[in-house]
Design brief:
This protein is α+β, with helices and mostly antiparallel strands. It is about 35% helix and about 20% strand.
């Protein structure tokens, strides 16, 4: 049996799965976000650790002795400063924290997008870069002396086995990895006045960080000494859980924010605009991560606006189907998170059904736009593997398949990052089995939706969408 842990932003989940990926038990515990008046968003690493222990105990209750390995997935870019003894110094600075944004913009302007692409695989500074520059500008005393830099994932792994470790996907989303060198970028670290020794250990996803310590074994009922993986970024763990493990595979994480992870067997000459390039957890593969910023949040906005919160998923699907392709000319451009969203073509003839359909179509068109960007950078998307709430909606996945013109493999399970972590755990203790064999055995097959006869109509609708209002 394998334990997969997902250290999410608001919840810690743990699942116990067998060699075929069947989930036998689950555990979950919530964690808080603390908001400050200046746009800060923080968390308590001790609370996250206690939630991790609680989730593990819930998942392994009565079955702890059967667990042979533990895998860890984690939110990315959540910065935890450490004192000279390795203890937490203050709260976690969440990836949602906006206090470093101005410093990120200044750094991007000073160094240039091309420089950042060469050194980090992303064309603009974010997360760790801006936060460290902000803290230095404020003369934060936590940066004095021999401080350390950690992130939520490696800090929790360190508590469980005594060694803080994460993989390249985690360091990539922290904006400190040179993806082509597969190590922290020395020039960037110099700019930030960081010594590489201040960072967590960087190891392969299927290389054990260590073994479960005796105190943790007593707390959780896990066997002492079983291997635990380094922390892997949750979107890449999700990709593994969805079976995204071969060139041409593209993950669509259709949650609150929709995210794409495209897989190839070589890095692009130049990543597409806005993408994070990183070595994939599977040796020899590469990933480009793109976010839509919007997604489920836009659909929830439309549901709330229309007062449909009490309708069932089936009733919402009936509304989507009733509106028909193109939503009778109503077009939604999903940029609500940035305040740039817009609706065009609206008339007195439109109703709630049209708005819901337009929102889903707008999101699907944004997925297609990013797939086109990936193609321009040399990628060859072949199949879209969708997970999350949207993948559970037959109407939504039909719209996505037609709008993007690709087969969509749908797996609506809500624990795909934790499942990906369990797949990593299995790989650690089964080194003679290839990654492809482990993923194929443990990742659900899912339903495949092929593009229908509406796909040609959606190509025309997409061209109108890209052209903008008045087209």
């Amino acid at each position: 049996m394998f334990l997969g842990i997902d250290l999410g932003t608001t919840n810690v989940k743990a699942i116990l799965v067998d060699e075929c990926g069947r989930v036998h038990s689950r555990g979950q515990a919530g964690v808080e976000l603390f908001h400050t008046s200046e746009g800060g968003v923080e968390q308590d690493i001790e609370q996250i650790f206690q939630a991790t222990v609680s989730a593990i105990r819930g998942a392994v209750a009565g079955s702890g002795a059967n667990v042979t390995a533990v895998g860890v997935s984690s939110q990315g870019g959540a910065l935890q400063l450490l004192d000279s003894h390795g203890a937490p110094a203050g709260r976690v600075i969440s990836w949602l924290d906006s206090r470093g944004s101005a410093f990120d913009r200044d750094f991007t302007q000073r160094m240039g997008g091309d420089w950042l692409l060469r050194h980090t695989g992303h064309d603009r500074a974010c997360t760790t870069i801006g936060q460290l520059l902000r803290l230095r500008a404020q003369r934060d005393t936590r940066l004095d002396g021999g401080f350390g830099i950690g992130f939520v994932g490696d800090c929790i792994v360190g508590r469980l086995c005594g060694r803080r470790a994460h993989d390249a996907t985690s360091l990539s989303l922290a904006m400190l990895l040179n993806p082509l060198l597969k190590q922290a970028d020395e020039q960037l670290l110099n700019e930030l006045e960081i010594d590489p020794r201040q960072l967590p250990d960087l190891i392969a996803a299927d290389c054990p960080a260590g073994g479960i310590g005796p105190d943790i074994a007593r707390l959780t009922s896990l066997p002492e000494g079983i291997p635990i993986s380094p922390a892997v970024h949750d979107q890449y763990a999700c990709a593994l859980g969805l079976g995204v493990s071969a060139p041409g595979d593209v993950m669509l994480g259709a949650g609150t924010a929709w995210v794409l992870v495209a897989v190839d067997d070589k890095p692009p000459g130049k990543p597409c605009d806005g993408a994070f390039l990183a070595p994939h957890p599977i040796e020899g593969l590469w990933g480009e991560l793109l976010t839509l910023n919007d997604g489920g949040s836009s659909f929830k906005w439309a549901i709330d606006l229309c007062g449909l919160q009490n309708e069932t998923a089936g009733e919402i699907d009936e509304r989507l189907i009733a509106a028909g392709p193109g939503a009778d000319g109503l077009v939604f451009h999903p940029q609500l998170a940035t305040g740039k969203g817009r609706i065009t073509g609206i008339s007195i003839a439109h109703n709630a059904n049209h708005l819901l359909r337009a929102v889903v179509e707008g999101l699907a068109f944004e997925v297609r736009r990013r797939l086109d960007m990936l193609r321009s950078a040399g990628a060859k998307p072949g199949v879209l593997c969708a997970g999350g709430k949207a993948a559970a909606s037959p109407a939504t996945r039909r719209i996505i398949a037609d709008a993007v013109g690709l087969p969509v493999r749908c797996m609506p399970q809500s624990e795909t990052s934790a499942l990906g972590a369990a797949i990593i755990a299995a790989r650690m203790v089964q080194p003679t089995a290839s990654w492809a064999q482990v993923v194929a055995r443990m990742s659900p097959c899912g339903d495949v939706v092929e593009p229908s006869g509406d796909a040609d109509a959606y190509t025309r609708l997409y061209e109108r969408y890209i052209a903008g209002p008045g087209a």
